[in-house]
Amino acid sequence: MSIGVWCGRLVTTPKRDVHHGDGIAWLREARLGPEHAIVTSVPDLSEMQPMGLQAWRDLAVEITRLACLRAAPQAVVILYQTDIKVDGRTIDKSYLAMRGAEEAGVHCLWHKVVCRTQPGNTTFGRPAFGHWMAFSRELRLAPDASTPDVLPELGVMTWARAMPMSAARATCEFLLAHTECRVVVDPFCGLGTILAVANEYGLDAIGVELSAKRARKAGRLTTRDGVADSGDSKPT
Ligand SMILES: C[S@@+](CC[C@H](N)C(=O)[O-])C[C@H]1O[C@@H](n2cnc3c(N)ncnc32)[C@H](O)[C@@H]1O
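^ inputs. structure came back:
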């Protein structure tokens, strides 16, 4: 958070730092405190070619385990994941995330879904819902801290692999209402959807992205009331 003076008034501007590099290496080294929430999506198998399915499954578990180990005890790790089908088999990404969390000794606070299409529609390939999950080692929520378990729509998608705007906004509202986390960290930040939404909500943001082009774009994406502005006309 940086502080400046505007028309004689003190104003605060949320910070955003985007690093071009390997999010896994960054996570291993990062000094994260109770103010840091890790909010991310593990890169999909299709983004990790030529990695095979088993190696990617192991990596997905390891990334969740690492995120859960690196987050401070009172902080949260929040994941958005959409399942995939490979050779007629469903690969349940929430299962992989739960395994990683359990291996880290961290507990699931909630597991919600985001509708990717209207309930009742038939879809082929990816299922009609995404998993939206929160984990913490020590934070526990009071029963009256409950929030909706089903988000009825995606809202704006800044690109095909984005965290949906509905989940990004609801994540920031959850962080502000129920946690002490005021910095959103996305080690696989893509175009920076959650970073931009975090700044819109007054939260600081840190992103890491392997693609230099996306890292640059993640530094300048802005959102307001669920609408995104990439600062240029090309989406990726
Ligand atoms: C599912 S996308 C994330 C989308 C992001 N949540 C958004 O809303 O734009 C995963 C991203 O991780 C990036 N990625 C893959 N491997 C990475 C690594 N080792 N370190 C950092 N980023 C990586 C990919 O380039 C891709 O942009």
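The chain has six helices and 14 strands. The radius of gyration is 17 Å.
thumbs up if we can close this ticket
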